[in-house]
């Protein structure tokens, strides 16, 4: 039997293993710098700013949704940004990804949040089809921008 539940401190190692699997799937196997200690501190420290739910089946964590709050100045309320959604290949096709997203949607509705949003790689057509089947729309006219590395340091130095 499978269960979707909030992540607990003992889940940090399993979540990190799944993060590494996700990086491999996304063709970035060496990109993960996170450690179990850092992940645990961010998820379960005194003031967590990141949250996670896990898919557990027969005592094993097979998937996760890692998320944090956003804020819409126009809506005047928070939303949820889904940073990562991942279900191990062997557990796909059984509705687990939908169950994880449904859990986040339920949290948003219960708390009065107006949206759950995320990014998807443009080549990941199975995920795009899955998200489309749930009614998730594309934000036309928007592109994701990122400031990092030396550009981040250079701009920060001008403050």
Quickly count the domains: 1
Instruction: Please identify which CATH superfamily we are dealing with.
Output: Gcn5-related N-acetyltransferase (GNAT)
Order of the strands making up the biggest sheet? 1-2-3-4-5
Overall mean pLDDT: 96
Kindly provide the radius of gyration, computed on alpha-carbon positions and rounded to a whole number of angstroms: 17 Å
Strand content: 15-25%
CATH class: Alpha Beta
| Topology pattern, helix = H, strand = E | EHHEEEHEHH
Total DSSP E strands: 5
Q: Which fold name corresponds to the CATH topology?
A: Aminopeptidase
* Main sheet characteristics: 5 strands, mixed
Helix vs. strand class: alpha+beta
Q: Your description of this structure?
A:
With 159 residues, the protein is of the alpha+beta class. It has a single domain (2-157), classed as 3-Layer(aba) Sandwich (Aminopeptidase), CATH 3.40.630. It has helices at residues 12-25, 36-44, 96-111, 125-133, 149-157; strands at 2-6, 51-57, 60-72, 77-87, 116-118. A five-stranded mixed sheet has the order 1-2-3-4-5, with helices on both faces. A hairpin with a 2-residue loop joins strand 2 (51-57) and strand 3. The chain is globular. The chain starts with a strand and ends with a helix.
